[in-house]
Batch of 3 targets.
Target 1
Amino acid sequence: MTFVKVALSTVADGSMLKRHEPHDEVIIQNRKRFLEAHGIVFEKTIRLHLNLSERATTENETNFCRFIYVDETKASDGIDGVSHTFADAIVTDKKNLPLMLPVADCVGAVFFDPEHEVLMLSHLGRHTLEQNGGIRSVTYLREHFASNPASLEVWLTPAPNKDVYPIWALDNKGMKEVTFEQLFKAGVLEENIHDDPRDTITDERFYSYSEFLKGHRKEDGDHMIVAVMQ
């Protein structure tokens, strides 16, 4: 029987991303230590990389719902340096192939289809949610793997509260509020959503890029979510 292991790091585990320095040795060791502590093979882990700098210079600039399939040929991509897996979500039907995403305010979402043994890791940030990224993640699984939305299990990372981080383009709703609305609209059942309700703004166990930019946090960094089918 296939099951999914999902792990979420905290500030105590150290930052899992240093912006503009992909080869930072401290970051790499933080990732390795955290993954190995959870029985996840560092060398097989694939990092989802948004590659925002690439978007600024190509036709992909306004597309925040890029989904790609990954398999063993992508194993270790980006885990200890530059990632070439540029997407907003990565999906696999391979067991023992961990998917990892650093986040620092945005929602990291794990989707698992137990019927077809498919795993997806999605970055649901403001731009992606404005483009119905929650719905489109489920649609991708339905169209490419015949997934039944009602059978999907979903795990969500902590996110900022809407009073501090509203999505202006979506009636000032909160990031998690919009995520739930889109998942429900896509057919995901409430009882299948495993939400971490902690707030990245008020809970300093998690990094917050927006709070760092405001000068409310001394350290810039990302926590991370990782998922693997076993």
Note: DSSP finds six helices and ten strands in the chain.
Target 2
Amino acid sequence: MDKQNEQLEALTEIRSMMERSSRFISLSGLSGVSAGICALIGAAVAFYHFHTGAQRYYEYATLKNGAANMDFYIFCFTTGSCVLIASLAAGIFFTVRKAKRKGQGIWDATAKRVLINLFIPLAAGGLFCLALLYNNVLGLIAPATLIFYGLALINASKYTLNDIRYLGICEIVIGLIASCFMEYGIFFWAIGFGVMHIIYGTVMYFKYEKPN
């Protein structure tokens, strides 16, 4: 019986080593929660700034004389940059902390594969959003960010935890729904990047990180 237990433990350890070498498993659920909170704060600031309910927020992009409203673009760029920087900073902090606690590496070949596979759809999505902006199709920018972000998560999921794939699918579905209700773009953006990240991060924390 003892010998059988030792064999099972050895197999478990081998499986764990193989998983660590092929998948980036240092992602922290608290990173997702923090990113979701940052996104909700950004959305709240946008709601307050645009005083938007069902009103199309992107109508602020053009002045009455037809000229571009630079204040609109500056506000969106500043708010989006702050949300992105805060989310990345919190994500890096919690991921590094988790890796140190478990004695895992952070910057290895697997982490690089995750970032590359994440970056390709994100870069394509960013360029597509710039094309939408250039052609003044602002209502589709929020849905496009959700869809391409979901594609990026699915693309990167094969090199990290499988749970990320389900988050990616949810982001795509929310983005597709948002494309049919463009005037509610900020609402869907808040749901996709805010609420879904908080739910995902909470589930991940209790599934993989919470002390027994």
Note: DSSP finds seven helices and no strands in the chain.
Target 3
Amino acid sequence: MKKLLAVVVAVMVVTGGWAQSAVAQQEQAKGAPVEFYGCNWQKGMGIADLVKVGKKFSQWADKNDSKYSAWILTPQYQTDMGFDVGWLGGWPDGAAMGKSMDTWLSGGHQLAREFDAVIDCSKHHELATAVAVNAPKQPPGSGIVMFAGCELLDGKSGPDAIAAHKKVADMMVGKGSKASSWAFFPGLGNTDSNIDYWQVVAFNNYSEFGVASDIFINGGGWRESVDIFRGVTRCGRGVMFDATLVRAGDSS
């Protein structure tokens, strides 16, 4: 997600070996694998075509890959990210991911061709470890999602950042925010060495985002956030996507 994520909005609420170590140190934090595709439209194709194939995929997954969740990410507030549309997928654990990948590679050929006719995702596919900060137990539905790249400050680790984001999230929720949030630690396929993790913040709709904006900007949220994050982590400018749920997998 090199250009995907890069501060006011970014700090609003809130897999490589390093990420696994960070998760292990945070006893109460459970890491789960997520994947991201950055894709470009094939000639003449658009969101309606992808949603159509996504529905076919959801039906296929109901029979073959019940634990996989997926969202189509349509850029909203952003600059040129190097792709037209994103696909975010996730599993409740690594065992589900491994089984899912084997099932797709052995039985998803026809659907893969249908996806390829709509989008070209060949240049951007990466894996990360997601750690919930303030998130529902079940996969969230459609809504909006913000991403920001974050850098750990000297002497700090992943668990330190997660703890700080948890404090900020609790503060914002206490003031009336309804945001959900996660930290994504980059892993296989990531080429951006300038960030240590992604801050991910989701809302059910723009109304919830607007309320949280007022809380953060006019309700003292930014002052408290600055104090909490000081000396721990620094997050860059954020980007926002409309997130369309393709399917919510079984998280049990």
Note: Residues 1-27 have pLDDT under 50 and may be disordered.
